[in-house]
Amino acid sequence: MGGMRWLRVNLFGDWKTSLATLMVGLLFMYWLPQLLDWALFRARWLTNADACRLDGAGACWSVVAEKYRIILLGRYPQEEQWRPLIATCLMVGLLVASCLRACWRRGLIVAWVAVLTTFFILMYGDVAGLSKVETDRWGGLPLTILLASLSIPTAFPLALAIALGRRSNLPAIRSLCTIFVELVRGVPLISVLFMASFMFPLFMPPGLSIDVLIRVLAGISLFSAAYMAEVIRGGLQSIPRGQEEAAATLSLSYWQTQRLIVLPQALATVVPGLMNNFIAIFKDTSLVTIVSLYELTGALSLALNSDADWRPFKIEGYIFIALIYFTFCYAMSRYSLWVEREVNKGKAR
Q1: How far apart are CA 155 and CA 220, in angstroms?
Q2: pTM of the full structure
Q3: Going by C-beta distance under 8 Å and a sequence separation of 6 or more, which residues neighbour residue 181?
Q4: How many Å apart are CA 223 and CA 246, to the nearest integer?
Q5: DSSP secondary structure of 267-327
Q6: What's phi and psi for 44, nearest 5 deg?
Q7: Which residues pair with 217 in a beta bridge?
Q8: Residue 348 — pLDDT band, cuts 50, 70, 90?
Q9: Are 139 and 291 in contact (CB under 8 A)?
Q10: Which tens digits make up the pLDDT trace of 300-319?
Q11: Which of 159, 153, 108, 107 lies closest to 263 in space, CA to CA?
Q12: What is the SS3 assignment for 119?
């Protein structure tokens, strides 16, 4: 579609659309120069906090240059920060490789095991001459990446099992799955994290303790699985019952029918909903601050609240954090569109 045709179809299709386009355009023209003036032309980039307080000063991006280590890496010991840097680069590289069709081989599973093992060795240490760093000192971007990368693949198979369980002919399994979904969806994630961090240890036997990072990861995974299960169940319900009956006439078992016929179609139908859940999981990792795990947003508060000179410039810090979240979420969204196109190729034929 040509540029002029795209404008005519999407922005000037009728008089209502044209009026809305003109109004938004005028507001944008009024607002954009002020934003550029504040964010770029009058901004302070590599100065001290006093220079940012001068009359006429715009955005104080110097706060990012001054506090980026704490924002990105949290309370991790400064002399050892090369370790989370390498660990994060390995994890992000593996995530990108996992999205490429050329890498969809059995070796990818081996790569995941190797990278996760290396990640925990680098972050925790206590081996190969590396100093020990407790998980409560992990933070910033490495913690955000870790929580999202582990909770998503942990929640997905659990959600799949729950969705199938809710459609089971066995009343006990169906009731159990329904109770789990309704119970988990009836409370906010903050409550789940609070219970996982502070309440769950009270029920453990004396002397037995599970690391807070594992408890938080389990809480996020269970919470996300409840929502994801309903998305998958919607996809399962969209498949005509006749396909399962046809599979039964071919003497296919229940699991063969689900694996070969029902699930491929159901999951392809709900790709947008699943990706929406994945993005929500990534953003929900910001809530772990309530249990004293300082991921990106928590690390920013940690960096500024401890320094009164830079505390007034939180807006610039949060914009920096928002750009990081937007970059990851936008990449996930674009990948979702690619997956949808690939799935729809079969339907087009």
Answers
A1: 8
A2: 0.86
A3: 162, 166, 226, 229, 230
A4: 36
A5: HHHTHHHHHHHHHHHHHHGGGGGGGT-EEHHHHHHHHHHT-TTTGGGHHHHHHHHHHHHHH
A6: -110, 125
A7: none
A8: low
A9: no
A10: 888 888 888 888 888 999 99
A11: 159
A12: helix
- Tokens 């990012």 correspond to 64
User: Which residue matches tokens 């770029």?
Assistant: 40
Q: Record the tokens describing residue 145, joined without a space.
A: 């990446």
Report how far apart the first and last C-alpha atoms of the chain are (Å, whole number): 22
CB 321 within 8 A of CB 300: yes
What value does the mean pLDDT of the chain take? 87
* Tens digits of residue pLDDT in 65-95: 888 899 999 889 989 999 999 999 999 999 9
Distance CA 156, CA 232 (A): 10
Distance CA 82, CA 46 (A): 23
CB 346 within 8 A of CB 267: no
Instruction: Report the CATH fold assignment for 63-76+138-348.
Output: MetI-like fold (1.10.3720)
Contacts of 194 (CB under 8 A, 6+ apart): 290, 291
What mean pLDDT is predicted for residues 99-105? 86
Please state the separation of Cα 73 from the chain's center in Å: 18
Which of 1-5, 211-215, 320-324 is predicted least confidently? 1-5
Determine contact, residues 320/39, Cβ cutoff 8 Å: no
Listed residue (299, 138, 117) closest to 211, CA to CA = 138
Per-residue burial over 51-84, b if 16 or more Cβ lie within 10 Å, else e, is ebeeeeebbbbbbbebbeebbbbbbbeeebbebb
pLDDT at 1: 53
Look at residue 347 and tell me whether its pLDDT is greater than 70. no
Dihedral sign, CA of 314, 299, 150, 122?
positive
DSSP secondary structure string, 227-278? HHHHHHHHHHHTS-HHHHHHHHHTT--HHHHIIIIIHHHHHHHTHHHHHHHH
